[in-house]
């Protein structure tokens, strides 16, 4: 493995170097794995093309130890192309510790493209602690594209505390009136989830 690592480190293209180092890290013991993944993340952050940088971060996301996740999240947030930004954030969402979730939610809310914004919220929905769910619901309700809003509300519906369920139910019902058929179906499912949660909580 020493020769393979030396060869990987000698690769001049940052995208290829990040991929090679990330793959080799899987075969290394803990402390050395962490050092090599640090090198891989550094190479990924140095990629100038934002699509390729996002792809490198996505490939590394599941491999990174918790100590490197703040840096990886910073790298995702620094991507200005919103589709690439959202894809990198989505890949990291399941890996992030609770301490980083407020920052991740802030990053999702900062995405102006509403489709990408909704996809990032959906990815975070299962991870967010209860304290962040009111902010996530506000973010979902603020999406003007109705199909995207319906999908985001649907993802949040099963996670919301009882106090927020009436608000989510009203938002989903309002959506159904002006949506296309697929969007109306999604809004209907969100309303059904919120209604079922409300009934279960009352029971």
- Helix tally equals 12
- H/E series: HHHHHHHHHHHH
Helix content: over 70%
Largest sheet: none
Overall shape: it is elongated
Question: How far is the first residue's CA from the last residue's CA?
Answer: 59 Å
The low-confidence parts are none
Strand-pairing-aware structural class: mainly alpha
- The strand count comes to 0
In what range is the share of β-strand residues?
under 5%
Please tell me the overall pLDDT: 87
Cα-based radius of gyration, to the nearest Å: 20 Å
What report would you give on this structure?
The protein is an all-alpha fold and 203 residues long. It is elongated, with a radius of gyration of 20 Å. The protein has helices at 2-9, 14-25, 30-45, 50-61, 69-77, 82-93, 101-109, 114-125, 133-141, 146-157, 165-178, 181-202. Helices cover 72% and strands 0% of the residues. It is built from twelve helices and no strands.
Short description:
72% of the residues lie in helices and 0% in strands.
Notable characteristics:
elongated; mainly alpha; 203 residues
Helix/strand layout:
Layout: H1 2-9, H2 14-25, H3 30-45, H4 50-61, H5 69-77, H6 82-93, H7 101-109, H8 114-125, H9 133-141, H10 146-157, H11 165-178, H12 181-202
């Amino acid at each position: 493995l020493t020769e393979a690592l030396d060869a990987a480190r000698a690769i001049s293209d940052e995208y290829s170097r990040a991929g090679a180092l990330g793959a080799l890290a899987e075969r290394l013991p803990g402390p050395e794995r962490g050092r090599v993944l640090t090198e891989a993340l550094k190479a990924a952050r140095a990629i100038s093309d934002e699509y390729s940088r996002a792809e490198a971060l996505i490939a590394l996301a599941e491999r990174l130890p918790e100590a490197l996740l703040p840096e990886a999240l910073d790298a995702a947030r620094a991507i200005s192309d919103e589709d690439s930004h959202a894809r990198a954030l989505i890949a990291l969402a399941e890996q992030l510790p609770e301490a980083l979730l407020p920052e991740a939610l802030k990053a999702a809310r900062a995405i102006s493209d509403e489709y990408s914004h909704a996809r990032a919220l959906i990815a975070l929905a299962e991870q967010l602690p209860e304290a962040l769910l009111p902010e996530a619901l506000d973010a979902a309700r603020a999406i003007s594209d109705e199909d995207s809003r319906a999908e985001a509300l649907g993802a949040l519906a099963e996670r919301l505390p009882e106090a927020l369920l009436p608000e989510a139910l009203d938002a989903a019902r309002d959506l159904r009136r002006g949506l296309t058929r697929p969007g109306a179906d999604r809004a209907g499912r969100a309303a059904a989830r919120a209604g079922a949660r409300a009934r279960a909580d009352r029971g």
